[in-house]
Amino acid sequence: MDDSVFRNAMGKFATGVTIITTKTSTETRGMTANAFMSVSLNPKLITISIDNNAYMLEKIKTSGKFAVNILSDQQQHISMHFAGQKKEKSRVDFDLINGVPVIKDSLASIVCDLDRSYEVGDHTLFIGKVVELNLKDGDPLTFYGGKYRSYQAAECVQQA
């Protein structure tokens, strides 16, 4: 199977857009990602998937902490910044929660201690133990078919 066909098939799954953030002793780093999910309610665990060639991989291993920031529909420019899609340089301001940088005004910032990791294929799955949350109201930034989208509530039709 061709890689582009597989990628196009995976693009049929609409996702939210997140920024994964971490901080080492020398720098704060972030990357745009949509490979994120909850794993367990008790204990509270989430997972993220990072390409084994991504610069962020070693940063998370070094820091042992990361945050998942779920972006609002007003934050596409931040996603583009961390995805390397913006030509002009811009500054992103962070807040800190438990020493981990988080994106200001994101819908949710989920701060985690690294619980464990698994190398699977060309990615590493990081399991994070949730230690702190920050929530705000708003609508999510979504991604579908290789494009940013805005959330639109679906009408529920009840069948008789």
Report what the structure shows.
It is built from three helices and twelve strands, in the order αβββββαβαββββββ. It has 160 residues and is an alpha+beta fold. The protein has one domain: Electron Transport, Fmn-binding Protein, Chain A (Pnp Oxidase, Chain A, Roll). Strand 7 (94-97) and strand 8 (100-103) form a beta hairpin. The termini are far apart. Residues 10-150 form the Flavin reductase like domain. This is Flavin oxidoreductase. GO terms for molecular function: FMN binding; riboflavin reductase (NADPH) activity.
Largest sheet: 7 strands, antiparallel
CATH topology value? Pnp Oxidase, Chain A
List the strand order in the largest sheet.
3-2-6-9-10-5-4
CATH superfamily: Electron Transport, Fmn-binding Protein, Chain A
State the helicity in percent bands: 10-25%
User: Quick one: overall form?
Assistant: globular
Helix-strand pattern, N to C?
HEEEEEHEHEEEEEE
- Total domain units: 1
Which structural class should the secondary elements be placed in? alpha+beta
Cα radius of gyration in angstroms: 16 Å
GO molecular function: FMN binding; riboflavin reductase (NADPH) activity
Domain Flavin reductase like: 10-150
Pfam families: Flavin_Reduct (PF01613)
Keywords: Oxidoreductase
